[in-house]
Amino acid sequence: MHQAISKQVLKAWLRDMMVSRTLRQAQGRLLIAPVAEAGMVMYRAVDKVEDIVFKFANTVLSPKEFFFPITDTLFTLRQKDGHPELVTPTMEKDAVLFGIRPCDALGLKIIDRPFLDEPADARYKERRERTTLVGLACSDACPECFCTSMGTAPDDAANVDIMLTENGEDYLVQAVTNKGKALLDGVALKEADTVSTSVVTPKKVPAENIGSAMLKAFDSLYWSRVADRCIHCNICSYVCPVCYCFDIRDYTSRGEVQRVRSWESCEAAGFTKLAGGADIRPNKGARMRQRFAHKLLYMDKQFGNLVGCTGCGRCVKYCPVNIDIREIINDVQKMAVEK
Amino acid sequence: MESLDKQIRDKARELLTSGAFACVMGYERATDGKTARPLFAYTPEEAERFVFDQYCTHNLARYLINWRDNKKSVGIVAKPCDTRAINLLINEKQIDRSKLYVIGVACQGIMEVGWGAPTEKLELRCNTCSEPNPVLHDLLVGEFKSESPAAAKAYADVAAIEGKSAEERDGFWQEHFSRCIRCYACRQSCVGCYCQECFVDELDPLWVGIKVAPAENTVWHTIRAFHLAGRCISCNECERVCPVDIPLSLLNRKLEKDGLELFQFQAGMDASVTPPFATFKKGEKLGTGD
Amino acid sequence: MAIDGFEPRIAGFLCNWCSYAGADLAGTSRMSYPSNIRIIRVPCSGRVDPLFVVKAFQQGADGVLVAGCHLGDCHYNEGNFYSRRRFALLAPFLDYLGIQKERFRLEWVSASEGRKFSDVVSSFTSDLKKLGPRSILSPGGRE
User: A86, A228, A276, B66: most buried by Cβ count inside 10 Å?
Assistant: First the structure.
């Protein structure tokens, strides 16, 4: 039998999360959920359950922005009584990320490798450990997504703590991890009478053995031809649930230094500019290839059996000039066969 | 009459067969099967992929700068607003008119379009367009229009912002700017933003820090727009590409409106007219520093 | 109505040939003017990039003054004419973004006009006191 939660109980549960329940959770939790903002759906910290959007395709930015924020102050160095004082920010309270899609949950699993492999990134690690992921299965496929080709599925519960799947007037509930079970503690679940979920199957992309195909297509003129229309903005990297490049700089003011980390993209001119002016990826074709080679080849080489794409389709949707990773995977496979 | 697609393909094939042209830029069908994307044709065969319809939204003049130092000529499919962009680049001596073949398309208006989501609603820029015919062309395809569709209401939305109080305006812009993710797609899509090094990328002096925060974002958007004052040709690509829907045209068109009032200048209409910040009149009354 | 105890910060970009000398004259003539202005000497009012003005506001200035030679008297003949065109467009644009036009001033002050310089700074300061502080864009403000 399946466990289920009614929509009313779900809302009450979400409301309860934000307030104090036990001594250990003295402050309640920070609830991050999809909300409507200026005609778009974005993950935001909410204080009213009424603001949460339950029906949506996917958000503009992936929830990686809460674990690896677009701008993150790593530490502040200031003077205190004539001595330097180092202040590292920490999370004020535990968090719950509600409504994460399986593709984005897989994205977090992927960037766990670069961020959590030792030496682990302290900021990322804390956020990851203190956040419970409540997944929401997709009942509609977007025209741009292809998650089933990238090792996940619209109702994949593998990378979340709790998985919810819409089932008529209820949601089916799967408590996947202990963290998930703890969050569900004391919540009035019921037995699902009937199971009639509608989970979709997105389009397929030939992503098998894409790494070795990439190697064969590596020196092709193809990359500079695709780069012809690339305008080298950073949209694809910034909307991606996997891209994890960043830049670090210090802010100095009135006896205080802040070390700030912000997102950066391999598509930007100057990303690989070195001291002295040399640039190891000086042309558009090299930059274009870098993005796809990193995802489809280098991550696999570096971490083993890992593809840096989850099939969320955001880059397909938001690219202003239609550089479509599905088309590129197809073309690369074709080039590999021809070679 | 022959279809636009065929006229464009025929001319592109002819140019590419001649041997004098490195490339012809136009549009092909995007991977959603409905909208369009830029196509760079290098061979007569590739020219067979050209299409033109109301979803060809990109301003291809943005790519001309990449061909600045090319010995061969290039061909380009250009809508009326795109031809104004070409005029801008000629005026600023960035491209050589003699190495450019412009296939001008008299425009029926472009529909609002996202990938996989073509609409039947005219783009904002087309609702406020004052020039539905190419201002320069070597070949004209499509039907020449004798009157402009909608010049009168062009700045109604700008005037609506002007009518708000200072606090409301500040709040309005801070709300939008705080959403900016600084992907710089607005800059990258722009014909006028061709600086070798953008002020925002300069490290010494550091004009804009890497924090993605309202204070930094405001400097970016203010100066991005102002660097295009008297230069923006209102193709509105910046607003179209913005992934977080910041109404950038409200910035650009405020400057265009004031530029028209103060200097009677509209960018890209005529490549031989000196732009407003490169000249002055001694006795003029401008309302500031008179 | 002035806000109690509020002392506005003014960034003043003064041209080397006229306005800076004018400020000097105000000083050597022992004319008093509010110390709210922080003076930055530039070669010409035409050197003042709109970016300087926007950056000054971002860094917490409550007002920005750009001052140069009178029109026709520019050391470089025409620098201030270009400057005037630029700021004629920038001032309403800043206003549009929520930085009231009273917070920006473009003035012509010659080397012999110490009195005028002192008057400009005094009236600008008192205007800004009435407007109150601009905290929104300053680094210590909202982020």
Answer: A228
Half-sphere exposure of B281 (CA within 13 A, CB side): 10
Length of chain A, in residues:
339
Spatial contact of C66 and C107, defined as CB atoms under 8 Å apart: yes
User: Which residue on chain B is closest to A231 by alpha carbon?
Assistant: B188
**Contact at CB, B40 and A324, closer than 8 angstroms:** no
B:C CB pairs within 8 Å: 108
Give per-residue pLDDT as tens, A49-63: 999 999 999 999 999
CB proximity C13 to B under 8 Å: no
Domain hosting A86: range is 3-191
In a domain, C27, yes or no: yes
Residues A111 and A309: their CA atoms lie apart, in Å, by: 11
Cβ neighbours of A227 in B, within 8 Å: none
Do A130 and A7 fall into the same domain? yes
Closest CA to A171 of A133, A136, A141, A142: A136
Q: Do C93 and B289 touch (CB under 8 A)?
A: no
Task: Report the distance separating Cα B265 and Cα B91, nearest Å.
Answer: 14
Total tally of structural domains belonging to chain B: 2
Q: Is the same domain home to B207 and B253?
A: yes
Total tally of structural domains belonging to chain C: 1
Range of the domain at B271: 156-278
Which residue intervals of A190-313 are DSSP H helices?
A: 210-217, 222-229, 235-239, 284-293, 299-303
Nearest to A235 among B31, B62, B185 (CB): B185
What residues does B75 pair with on adjacent strands? B24, B101
Contact C97 B223 (CB under 8 A): no
Tell me which residue in A39, A144, A265 faces B116 most closely, judged by beta carbons: A144
Locate the chain C residue with the closest alpha carbon to B257: C89
Q: Is A337 left (phi over 0), alpha (psi -120 to 50) or beta?
A: alpha
User: Is residue A247 classed as helix, strand or coil in its secondary structure?
Assistant: strand
Reported pTM: 0.93
Relative to beta strand A170-175, strand A162-167 is: antiparallel
Going residue by residue through chain B, which has 290 residues, state the pLDDT in tens, using 9 for 90 and above.
679 999 999 999 999 999 999 999 999 999 999 999 999 999 999 999 999 999 999 999 999 999 998 999 999 999 999 999 999 999 999 999 999 999 999 888 899 988 888 888 888 888 878 788 899 999 999 888 776 665 556 788 999 999 999 999 999 999 999 999 999 999 999 999 999 899 999 888 889 989 999 999 999 999 999 999 999 998 999 999 999 999 999 999 999 999 999 999 999 999 999 999 999 999 899 988 88
ipTM exceeding 0.85?
Answer: yes
Spatial neighbors of C49 by CB under 8 A, at least 6 apart, are none
